Amino acid sequence: MTETLAQPVGEEKPGLELIKNRIQRILESLPPSHEPSTPPQGEAEQALRQMLREKGIYPVHLGARLSDFFNPPEKPPVFICGPAGTGKTHLAVAYLVREIQIWGGNSRIFIRSVDLFNKLRDSFRSSSGTPATEIIGNYSRYRFLIVDDLGTERDTPLVQEALYSIIDYRAGHRLPTIITSNFTLDRVGGHYGDFGERLASRISGMGEGLTLDGKDRRWQK
Ligand SMILES: Nc1ncnc2c1ncn2[C@@H]1O[C@H](COP(=O)(O)OP(=O)(O)O)[C@@H](O)[C@H]1O
Ligand SMILES: [Mg+2]
């Protein structure tokens, strides 16, 4: 008589598959032994967008990339002008994104011209808050600076001089700078009183200008 081990009624002998499944479940419940060395693309993109938001970039420009443009100049143009809606801010942000992807976001700044003027004006007016010298020093030295939409504010000679000294320092130290404007450089020059002409001359000496013309869309795909 062969003896077989009694099996409890209703319970199957655990098969190989069942054991494998249990081991799999245990393994899955354990914490991963290491984090992936590069985060998935989605996370990198999200981190980049968050950084751009923190730099004050509007949502419509968060996705701006140089690949959105046809054959953009390798070196960022110093002065991008053209009518509203032609993609000046989009292009400037696309260069900023390339900078961030190569160097990280530190000391790479985007500011609307109106906000820079307000900052400077406030600093001259009040003794509390950040002193003008510090603001001028910072904006002079940032590794990469975009001043978006220059040319609408006129402001006091003191503020105009502060702007001039920022641009003059950056030109003298070859610090990459992009200025966008709805106006031509000549018009910007005529707009800033005693400092206008010198400002325009510094800007033109810093590098190439680029006109975005909505009609021929040369730089846009
Ligand atoms: N090359 C491009 N590819 C995709 N979208 C673009 C491109 N250029 C501009 N845009 C979009 O068109 C709109 C106007 O561009 P914007 O850069 O704000 O113009 P500007 O600064 O000249 O007024 C924005 O929503 C921007 O995101
Ligand atoms: Mg713009």
Question: What do you see in this structure?
Answer:
This protein is α/β, with parallel strands linked by helices and 221 residues long. The chain has a domain at 60-211: Rossmann fold. Helices cover 47% and strands 10% of the residues. It has helices spanning 16-29, 41-54, 88-103, 113-125, 132-141, 157-172, 185-191, 193-206, and strands at residues 79-81, 108-112, 144-148, 177-181, 209-211. α5 packs parallel to α6 (157-172). The longest helix is centred in the middle third of the chain and has 16 residues, at 88-103. It is elongated. The N and C termini lie far apart (87 Å). Mean pLDDT is 87; it is low at 1-11. The structure holds adenosine-5'-diphosphate and magnesium ion. Adenosine-5'-diphosphate (ADP) is lined by residues 60-61, 68-69, 82, 84-90, 220.
User: Which ions, cofactors or small ligands are bound in this entry?
Assistant: adenosine-5'-diphosphate, magnesium ion
The tally of beta strands, per DSSP, is: 5
At the fold tier of CATH, the topology name of the domain at 60-211 is: Rossmann fold
Which structural class best describes the helix and strand composition? alpha/beta
Query: What is the CATH superfamily label of the domain at 60-211?
Result: P-loop containing nucleotide triphosphate hydrolases
Q: Taking all residues together, what is the mean pLDDT?
A: 87
Radius of gyration: 29 Å
Which ranges are low-confidence, i.e. pLDDT below 50, for 5 or more consecutive residues? 1-11
Molecular shape: elongated
CATH class descriptor of the domain at 60-211: Alpha Beta
SSE sequence, one letter per element: HHEHEHHEHEHHE
> Quick one: biggest sheet?
5 strands, parallel
What is the CA-CA span between the terminal residues? 87 Å
Helix content: 40-55%
Tally of helical runs? 8
CATH architecture of the domain at 60-211: 3-Layer(aba) Sandwich
Strand content: 5-15%
Order of strands across the biggest sheet? 2-3-4-1-5
